[in-house]
Specification:
- By secondary structure, this protein is an alpha/beta fold.
- The chain folds into 3 domains: 123 residues, Pantoate--beta-alanine Ligase, Chain: A,domain 2 (2-Layer Sandwich); 101 residues, Ribonucleotide Reductase Protein R1, domain 1, CATH 1.10.40; 139 residues, no CATH class.
- Helix content is 35%, strand content 18%.
- The chain is built from 14 helices and 16 strands.
- It has a 6-stranded mixed beta sheet. A two-stranded parallel sheet has the order 3-6. A two-stranded antiparallel ribbon has the order 4-5.
- Strand 4 and strand 5 form a beta hairpin.
- It is elongated.
Length: 419
């Protein structure tokens, strides 16, 4: 009996040890499985990111052939690349969708006037604080903020007193949060609520989808000739380039404000200028250097952005969109838009526009397995060469919806690994 009891004890002990070993092995197997899944997910993220980066490189290649002369239109090859996110490019076991957006179709928060900002989905406080952030001076507007406010924060900093470096920099400005920047605001009073219409469906837009800090254009006419800077040119030069009489050109020079004309609309307001002079002035004169910041490209600007141009009648805005199918080759083509052959209206609005662009946003969604990585790159054209300025990760949960793409692609293009 004693041996039998000992044998039973050994058996029970053995079972206990075996059960422990099985538990350890099960835990090890589960841990290895979790590690394998995590590793697989990391690899998918990497492959999806590489696919998205391939889309950016594809855009860079497209812009190597872009000429630097006017105009930049939606009929150009860059505008068709990716079919506004509807084309799926396959690259090995990954794929990407893409869209290129002209930055000059968006509102530049570094140059937008107070009147234009007030037509965005912004509160009065946000408008004042934005202007206080970018402009010099130590005294804030009535609802604005300068160093006195920012220096008292838990983590203090100073007002920028200069141009925004990115749209995300708005998050440093009083009154702005991630919610107000990336989500549609429905409780803003007395300002516009821009709407994008895609395939008949209307969608309200968040602020981030409407603004940029990168829009640049060239002050050139349709033949590629640089426009004449009316703030530095002599009377004879102005008269010759803009087909003006000497007395009218003299009046332009004598009427220069202390800091110079700020936009071409102000030149049209000079006494003696008539509607007959307007086309030549718009086509051949400028108020700055060859590179202009913040102008809206008449060929690519959207209805929702045109709705923020102060004093631009809705019918004229719609007519500009209609004219985009044939294109604007010179700024003077504004006179051919129904309702725009009006000197007073041109004085108020012409300064917001140009007909070309030197900066673009590349929106790419890389996909590998069940993993998606969205990137937005900013490209600029300098001396005929495309350069990558920055790459950002958009914070939207539904990036396809945020960009206004179709849920599923409608075509597929297979790319070689080295294409």
């Amino acid at each position: 009996m004693r041996r039998s009891k000992q044998s039973g004890s050994v058996f029970v002990l053995t079972l206990t040890v075996l059960a422990g070993l099985v538990s350890v092995l099960a835990l090890a197997a589960a841990s290895q499985r979790s590690a394998a899944i995590a590793q697989s997910h990391r690899m998918e993220i990497r492959r999806a990111k590489i696919a998205a980066e391939a889309g950016i490189q594809r855009a860079l290649a497209e812009f190597q052939n872009l000429t630097t002369t006017s105009p930049t239109t939606l009929s150009d090859d860059w505008a068709a690349l990716g079919q506004n996110g509807s084309e799926d490019f396959t690259l090995g076991s990954a794929n990407f969708r893409m869209e290129i957006v002209d930055a000059a179709s968006l509102i530049n928060i570094n140059t937008a006037t107070q009147e234009q900002l007030e037509l965005l989905p912004l509160t009065g406080e946000q408008v004042d604080c934005l202007l206080d952030w970018r402009e010099e001076g130590v005294s804030p507007r009535s609802d604005g903020a300068k160093d006195e406010y920012y220096n008292q924060l838990e983590k203090p900093y100073n007002t920028k007193l200069g141009a925004f470096s990115s749209v995300d920099e708005l998050l440093l400005v009083k009154g702005f949060t991630a919610d107000t920047l990336y989500n549609v605001q429905t409780d803003v009073v007395n300002t516009a609520r821009p709407v994008r219409t895609t395939n008949g469906d209307s969608q309200q837009l968040p602020l981030e989808q409407l603004v940029t800090v990168d829009s640049t254009s060239q002050a050139v006419n349709s033949s590629g000739q640089a426009k004449l800077n009316v703030n530095t040119a002599q009377v004879n030069q102005i008269a010759q380039r803009a087909n003006l009489t000497i007395p009218v050109a003299t009046q332009i020079v004598n009427s220069r404000p202390g800091g110079g004309y700020t936009n071409i609309g102000a030149v049209l307001a000079v006494p003696g200028i008539t509607i007959q002079n307007a086309r030549d002035i718009l086509n051949n004169l400028t108020t700055g250097g060859q590179n202009l910041t913040g102008k809206l490209n008449l060929n690519t600007v959207t209805q929702e952005v045109l709705d923020t141009v102060p004093n631009l009648p809705p019918d004229a805005a719609s007519a500009i969109i209609t004219r985009q199918s044939t294109g604007f080759t010179d700024l003077g083509d504004l006179l051919d838009v129904p309702g725009m052959n009006n000197l007073a209206l041109l004085q108020q609005t012409a300064g917001f526009f140009e007909v070309n662009s030197q900066s673009f946003l590349v929106r790419v969604l890389g996909v590998a397995g069940a993993t998606k990585v969205a990137l937005q790159a900013t490209l600029t054209i300098t001396n005929g060469q495309a350069k990558l300025v920055r790459i950002e990760r958009p914070p939207y949960g539904d990036i396809i919806g945020a960009w206004g793409w179709d849920t599923d692609p409608t075509s597929t293009t297979a790319l070689k690994e080295n294409q």
